[in-house]
């Protein structure tokens, strides 16, 4: 496929900053991008697969309090925003705006911290491909959070050399193996007062020859 010389991959002109606030007020997150063809924005929360809202994408716990929009200025800048009314502790997390066109993609991520008890949003089933690496981030809200860790069968991860668990709730499993790695995993978040939240996620591992060369190394299923 050929593109004209004046075509350009997206470039972010403005992006939102990390915020820490009490529950209750309205929060506005905005990103502005330029590019040719005009880029399309998508939004995600803690990297999980989105549900469709208008022309912009966002996975959120309560859609009724979220207003998601996108428009183009007379200067061909694309402005996308997420407005959250009556923000709650479970709305906290790492928000990402991504602008993409046929030439390329650019993204920005920052945390929105809402004071409150630990809360972990529901996670969809995750499907990985045997032999590939899998990255899962625990969708923790509430602030401040003292500890985040992953467990499986009552054991704190990592329990082998292929697993890496980080303090920010990210779990990496290298070179997935269906018999060893498929199953139920539990994320636990705790504050300094020892108040906790726990949530399970199911990880399925498929063999490579069942997926074809076009399959990605991780997919998600809502339900």
TrEMBL record:
Question: What membrane topology does this protein have?
Answer: Single-pass membrane protein
* Stored SMART domains: IG, IGc2
* Subcellular location(s) of the protein: Membrane
Q: TM segments?
A: none
Keywords for the protein's UniProt record, in alphabetical order: Cell adhesion, Disulfide bond, Immunoglobulin domain, Membrane, Repeat, Signal, Transmembrane, Transmembrane helix
* Principal subcellular localisation of the protein: membrane
Q: Name one GO cellular component term.
A: plasma membrane
User: Is Acyltransferase set as a keyword in this record?
Assistant: no
* Alphabetized Pfam families for the sequence: Ig_3 (PF13927)
Gene Ontology molecular function terms on file: cell-cell adhesion mediator activity
Q: Name one GO biological process term.
A: dendrite self-avoidance
Q: Which parts of the sequence belong to the Ig-like domain?
A: 10-113, 118-204
The protein depicted here goes by the name Ig-like domain-containing protein
Species whose genome carries this gene: Glossina brevipalpis
């Amino acid at each position: 496929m050929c593109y004209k010389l004046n075509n350009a991959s997206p470039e972010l002109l403005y992006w939102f900053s990390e915020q820490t606030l009490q529950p209750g007020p309205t929060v506005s997150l905005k990103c502005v991008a330029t590019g040719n063809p005009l880029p399309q924005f998508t939004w995600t929360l803690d990297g999980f697969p989105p549900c469709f809202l208008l022309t912009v994408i966002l996975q959120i716990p309560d859609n009724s309090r979220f207003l998601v929009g996108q428009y183009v200025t007379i200067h061909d800048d694309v402005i996308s925003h997420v407005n959250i009314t009556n923000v709650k502790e479970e709305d906290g997390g790492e928000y990402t705006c991504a602008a993409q066109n046929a030439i390329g993609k650019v993204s920005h991520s920052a945390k929105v911290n809402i004071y409150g008890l630990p809360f972990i949003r529901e996670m969809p089933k995750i499907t990985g491909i045997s032999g590939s690496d899998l990255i899962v981030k625990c969708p923790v809200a509430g602030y401040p959070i003292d500890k985040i860790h992953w467990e499986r069968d009552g054991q704190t991860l990592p329990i082998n050399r292929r697993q890496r668990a980080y303090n920010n709730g990210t779990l990496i499993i290298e070179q997935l193996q269906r018999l060893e790695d498929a199953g139920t995993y539990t994320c636990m978040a705790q504050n300094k007062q020892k108040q906790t939240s726990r949530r399970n996620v199911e990880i399925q591992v498929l063999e490579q020859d069942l997926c074809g060369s076009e399959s990605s190394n991780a997919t998600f299923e809502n339900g």
